[in-house]
Amino acid sequence: MKSRLSLSVNGEAHDVLVPVHKTLLEVLREDLGLIGTKHGCELGECGTCTVLVDGEPVLSCLALPADLGGREILTVEGMAEGGRLHPLQQAFAELGAAQCGYCTPGILVTAKALLAGRPTPTRQEIKEALAGNLCRCTGYTKILDAVELASLRLDHSGLTSPNVGRRRPGEGAPTANETDHSGLTSPNVGRRRPGEGAPTANPT
Amino acid sequence: MMRLPPFTYLAPRTLHAAATALAEHGADAMPVAGGTDLFPNMKRRQFEPKVLVGLRGIRELTGIRGRGREGMTLGAGTTLSAVAAHPEIVAHYGALATAAGLVSSPQLRNMGTLGGNVCVDTRCNYYNQSHEWRKAIGFCMKKDGDICLVAPGSSRCWAVSSSDTAPVLWSLGARVRLVGASGERVVPLEALYRDDGIQYLTKQPGELVADIVLPPADGWTSAYLKLRRRGSFDFPVLGVAVALRMDGDRVGEARIVLGAVASQPRPAPDAAAALAGERLTPELITRVADLAAGPSKPLDNTDFTHPYRKKMTRVFVARALRALAGLPGGGRAAEEVA
Ligand SMILES: Cc1cc2nc3c(=O)[nH]c(=O)nc-3n(C[C@H](O)[C@H](O)[C@H](O)COP(=O)(O)OP(=O)(O)OC[C@H]3O[C@@H](n4cnc5c(N)ncnc54)[C@H](O)[C@@H]3O)c2cc1C
Ligand code: SF4
Ligand code: FES
Ligand code: FES
């Protein structure tokens, strides 16, 4: 069953005729030639295929284009503006936050969504936001540093100032339980001990 | 590439239309909400429905209504992110917000729904594998084979109920509204489950979970603790949900429900009964934690050894109770173990 779909990707409308069982990841890479979005586990276990749908990070390997009519999709190709890198991309390049680079597109868009809602996140908030993106190379420290650097630059440039302090209700705010039992939900990004928790160690 | 098998996709706008489509296509059809459980399973060829009935376009399935004081109704299509962040849920049904916020990863919580979480497939090391892997080992009775590879002499499948929210909803006394082509019914959430790794739900295949209904939170407090190897991504290999209503300084009523130790959430009624009418002293907590470990009978088919998971049941029940009693040593959900 093929269907004709109109997808809005990086601000451009695309008409595609694709089998309905192709995932958004497959359509982006194979039909639209947007190979910035990476293809990792294909099962929801790595986060490298993350794109933004109406500003929210979702996994393109588990999304059906048929559900996305009328929604705005953003991939890493849509981050630079007018030939200028996004401050996150700039900071990643400067600080060496990308090594092999395979996780980078997913992390960049996830971090972009974080900074849109919370221009000056704490390090813990950055870890939590990136808890769904695995990186096998960097050890995460430089990724966290780069997101912090970009956040400072964006904040000082005044670009996001209208949003400062406009935390959405309940969004990421510590929940009652988190305050009660400190550390309850802290994801362990960057705190993984060597050799532990390799993405394929457990069948998931 | 691990691709989805072909299917026809229907995107009804109303619950009634969805239920009608499911009834019409019978065993060929399955509903899909966020797809975060079903799509990986379809890629591994654990399900190959000819027709998928997408629930994402159904308005009446989303939304959170009501308040803690009078009870709340959560649409089955509500995302886990929305459940975890909802101020009224955080304030009055704390364990539910915690459990929803501990499912998998942020991206998956933006996609995955509460209804899908309640219906999530059971899990087993011999089942959550690619088709090639399962073929190489000769398949098992949950899909394509006829024996159980965990308990070879067994006539049933022991795959593990792995929902984070189900034990919590059970402990909170939640009810579920089920809608089928020929009508609807409301059942206690616990009536939805059966201790069988294959037929783990009692609802008819054509019935949809429409809402989850929470009773008034009146005086109840709750906690949820989850055991898994990593602090993100991983399913629970033990979940402990505790809900308490205090009467002054004594426990009025208590419920303890364990996740990931059987093919359905498993209550610990003896432990809960031992709490009633008592003060939450450290001695009582130790005794109740021992009692709660009784019904915890994990098998060797998930991450970590099963004796360890059983032992951790006691530890987690004690921690949850200490947290609710305001005693030191409560807390820490996602245990890391080297
Ligand atoms: C890497 C990874 C990690 C995960 N970790 C966790 C975890 O830690 N804890 C956890 O609990 N889950 C986990 N999950 C599973 C899944 O993401 C969640 O359970 C999620 O809530 C499922 O919701 P969904 O809407 O995506 O369900 P779907 O995949 O759409 O559906 C799941 C099942 O429920 C049925 N269904 C869905 N909605 C309805 C409805 N309204 N009525 C009747 N049937 C329905 C579908 O037919 C299907 O059988 C994980 C998944 C992945 C890929
Ligand atoms: S418990 Fe047995 S039958 Fe069930 S999935 Fe595991 S190996 Fe297969
Ligand atoms: S490729 Fe989508 S999560 Fe790994
Ligand atoms: S830079 Fe290689 S996976 Fe992250």
Largest sheet of chain B: 5 strands, antiparallel
Reading off the top of the CATH hierarchy, the class of the domain at 59-119 and 160-214 in chain B is best stated as: Alpha Beta
Question: How many individual helices of chain A?
Answer: 6
Structure classification of chain B:
alpha+beta
What kind of sheet is the major sheet of chain A? 5 strands, mixed
The CATH class of the largest domain in chain A, by name, is Mainly Alpha
CATH topology of the domain at 59-119 and 160-214 in chain B: Uridine Diphospho-n-acetylenolpyruvylglucosamine Reductase, domain 3
Mean pLDDT of chain A, nearest integer? 83
Task: Identify every distinct bound molecule in the structure, by name, code or SMILES.
Answer: flavin-adenine dinucleotide, iron/sulfur cluster, FE2/S2 (inorganic) cluster
Number of strands of chain B: 12
The radius of gyration over CA of chain B amounts to: 20 Å
Order of helices and strands of chain A: EEHEEEHHHHH
Radius of gyration of chain A: 17 Å
**Overall pLDDT metric of chain B:** 95
How would you concisely characterize the structure shown here?
With 204 residues, chain A is an alpha+beta fold. Helices cover 29% and strands 13% of the residues of chain A. In chain B, the strands form 3 sheets. Chain B has a 5-stranded antiparallel beta sheet with strand order 4-5-8-6-7. Chain B has a 4-stranded antiparallel beta sheet with strand order 9-10-11-12. A 3-stranded parallel beta sheet of chain B has the order 1-3-2, covered by helices on one side.
Care to describe what's here?
The complex is a heterodimer of chains A (204) and B (338). By secondary structure, chain A is an alpha+beta fold. Chain A folds into two domains: 2-78, Beta-grasp domain (Ubiquitin-like (UB roll), Roll), CATH 3.10.20; 87-180, DNA polymerase, domain 1. Chain A contains six helices and five strands, in the order ββαβββααααα. Chain A has a five-stranded mixed sheet, with helices on both faces. In chain A, helix 2 packs across helix 5. The longest helix of chain A has 17 residues, at 141-157. The two termini of chain A are 30 Å apart. Mean pLDDT of chain A is 83; it is low at 160-204. Chain B has 338 residues and is of the alpha+beta class. Among the domains of chain B are: 59-119 and 160-214, Uridine Diphospho-n-acetylenolpyruvylglucosamine Reductase, domain 3 (2-Layer Sandwich); 220-325, CO dehydrogenase flavoprotein, C-terminal domain (Enolase-like, domain 1), CATH 3.30.390. Chain B has a five-stranded antiparallel sheet. In chain B, strands 9-10-11-12 form a four-stranded antiparallel sheet. Chain B has a three-stranded parallel sheet with strand order 1-3-2, with helices on one face. In chain B, helix 10 packs antiparallel against helix 11 and helix 11 (282-293) packs antiparallel against helix 12. The longest helix of chain B has 20 residues, at 306-325. The radius of gyration of chain B is 20 Å and the shape is globular. The two termini of chain B are 32 Å apart. The mean pLDDT of chain B is 95. At the A-B interface, strand 4 and helix 6 of A face helix 2, helix 4, helix 5 and helix 6 of B. Bound molecules: flavin-adenine dinucleotide, iron/sulfur cluster and FE2/S2 (inorganic) cluster (2 copies).
